[in-house]
Design goal:
Helicase, Ruva Protein, domain 3, 4-stranded antiparallel β-sheet, 3 domains, two-stranded antiparallel ribbon, 10 helices, 292 residues, Chitinase A, domain 3, alpha+beta
Amino acid sequence: MKKFAILMTASGALVLSACHAGTGTAAAQAKPPIAHVDGQPVSAEALDIFVKAQGGKAFAELPAAQQEQVVDSLIKLAVVAREGEKQGLADQPDTHAALELARMQVLARAAVQAHFKDAKPTDAELRAEYDSLIAKMPKEEFEASHILVDDEAKAKDLIAQLEKGAKFATLATANSKDPGSAAKGGDLGWFPPEQMVKPFSAAVALLKDGEYTHTPVQSQFGWHIILRTGARPTPPPPPFEQVKDQIAPSVEQKRVGVYVDNLKKNTKVESHYTAPPAVQGAPSPAPAPVQQ
């Protein structure tokens, strides 16, 4: 199950919150405002959104004392915002841009909600996504130990000691800068390949059980000496029915992606952004390790 969850997490960013904020509704009936600030209404609909954003509950579900508190909080927010308007702060570049962005986000969320109203993923879509995730799962996982040091010369010296008969666990405990595994003689336990950075997982895959790397392996964390102690088939994935609800966000994300791409294709867009020139010799950002 854990391996399957890793793949699902890695399958992409979260869907626009629209897909999980509700299926979208018709415009609500206007309610009387809860207050006026300098003659400007503070709507009951704004209060509902304000309350749900803070705790997820509807205003009507709150006890009376808490209702009074949130109403007062929203009125105070409106009073301060009104002061900002009086001072002309809405016309300042940063404030104007923030208001513009907030408006775009709200409208985009509403557009997605409206487009996908009542359009839940079908079992066929969920099954296709499940099969795709299964196909990407590694076929085996490994057990290994490592010694992590800061420089290649140190790593080569430790390898020379191993070749003379030194115990891997002893050297790991005394020299590895990875505190979690050093305390266990370098033992990392069992892991799927994607849990480790690529140089590490590639090196482990090339070893046989009981072998260690005779050349130090470099990653963004330093220099590794790796001892592979085991390999076994990856445990079978959970059945479709058990995880199909967890797959739904991935399907919804892809739907939203297609919807947005189609909108962009059919909208006149003129981008005025120019990418800066590449800096000669600038290092590429190091990939982050996949977290379990």
